[in-house]
Prior knowledge:
7-stranded mixed β-sheet, alpha/beta, globular, Rossmann fold, 45% helix
Amino acid sequence: MSKTIVIAFANNKGGSGKTTTCSNVGCALALEGKKVLMIDGDMQLNLTISFFDEEKAYEYAKGDKNIYRAVVGEADLSDYIVETEIEGLDIVPSTSLMSSIEFDLFAKWQRESVLKKCLERVRAKGYYDYILIDSPPTLGGWVMNVMCASDYVVIPVEASPWGLFGLANMFDFCDQAKRIAPKLEILGIAVTKADERKKYFKQTMETLREMEAAPLFENYVRVDSAVEWAQDNSKPVVAYKKSSRSAVEYTKLAKEIIEYAHRKERN
């Protein structure tokens, strides 16, 4: 039975391309024949809407098949998984009720480990090769839950003057999470929304390469209107338009992320 690898996609900075990166990496892996479970941990439901139209997404949000119901009930996450149209790719949808998750977690015993416990049976079965968790752009108790349930963290960063803002806080938060989950590691920084024509792009890349807190993935994703068209059609761009530049770049990034993860597993 193969080990299930859990990877969180997190950044306290909004607009970093976190959800888009998470959805496309997961989809790219599924298209390569891997079994992937995605968990939408953000109250905005963007990851869920990456695979379902709004009507279906809100149906899950209003019902019982969502991450909030599982976490508040401290239940086995197996019962909250739904299939997507992409073979080998399942998801635990989100709901706007996640807006109160910090309050709901506060009184729970070992509150930083609730999600980890919910995932125990799913991981033990070894059915999924990868579990990818999309977290909200905050640094609170829920994101700490996401970190403590994960093996690795990928930090998407927008290649812009504001993209690096708050990154030091993100590193500090990961260090705090490692006190609870010592095996947690930052897998790397994934650059998104890159525009090589801009002077600040080169400056951003140089700054990120010099950071000792986390490695920088070699592959990055450039600005591409195909991503927006894919989002409008409730699909990751790697499924919506495989030939697009961004789809090719996300696929390369997905392979690099998994290569990093397996390299660490071997060590």
